[in-house]
Amino acid sequence: MSQPIKPWRATCMQVYTYGTNKSANRAEAMAIVNKSLDRWEELLDNLGRYGSGTAQVALFPEFALQGFPGKESAAQWIEKSCFEIPGSPEVERLQKKAKALGIYIGANAYERDPEWPGRYFNCSFLIDDKGEVILKYRRINTMHAGSPHDFMDKYLARYGVEGIFPVARTPLGNLAMIPCGEIMYPEAARAVMLRGAEVLLHPTSDFGAWDNWSWQSCKKARASENMMYLISSNSGGIKGTNVPETENAGRSRIFDYEGRILAEGPSPGESMRCNTIIDVEGLRRIRSSLGGFNRIAGIRTEIYRLVYDNTVFFPANSFADAAMESKDKIREVQREALKNMAKVGAIPPLEPKLKAAE
Fold it and tell me: Both 262 and 310 in a single domain?
């Protein structure tokens, strides 16, 4: 019989995001990245203030090291701002820090992979207390980057379902990751729960500081409907880009498996105040109980599959033969999605003007 999991502490590392868009070359961009990493290491060294002696998971926000691509082409963004995960000096710094402190570190960055030339990914990754990258999740639903869905058949053949929706089985429980806006897609969180996830790490850069209707509602719903902990670490503010500094700023939150807020950060600014104890054994007891409150035990997947299997909105393999040249190309595929939505009556028939624009 396996040993019970002791409660452990999760901390949202609410830091500033510094964009690399204005960098003239890779050297300038990586200087910005490494300056941010300097600050991250300082903050990580201060984790002991929040529960020394307890196993720690520290989660940083989405794309907090590079910012997000603006007018850059895919080739320009890959060359200037992306790095390998693992296999780059930048990620290696986090690996060394995780090992030195004996903690888990979750983060998110734009990734380049020599195996997929010309493509870049929004990649969430988890480093264990031995300094190993034990999980990589490449964002599926995105308007800023390429997606495994863009060349799904090739990607699936290479990695399998477990590589698309990875779950790390650790001494702390079963951990998974999805970033930012994917919290708006119930399928994303549901997929990793169906593969065993108990704690969902959510590196984000969202409007939750002022939008308490859509973002917070979706976070509560994902935690509650999947009976999982949700650790949502938001940016403290974003600098060096063409958006206002407080556009994505703060209100990191941690939710329990009933959707209750256990901890919350301020807005805007740096903070590590959003932290709490995670009780995986308590979650397991609830998930293992009989009764109508066990929402997972009541899932009837087969009947819903009849609809999903016959529905295509945003088509797969849209960039199977050639990598997406720029994120503007995603809008062209969105037009196809609108046509498909109109076919099933999800929206009214498209206006002739929109059809002509295609």
Answer: no
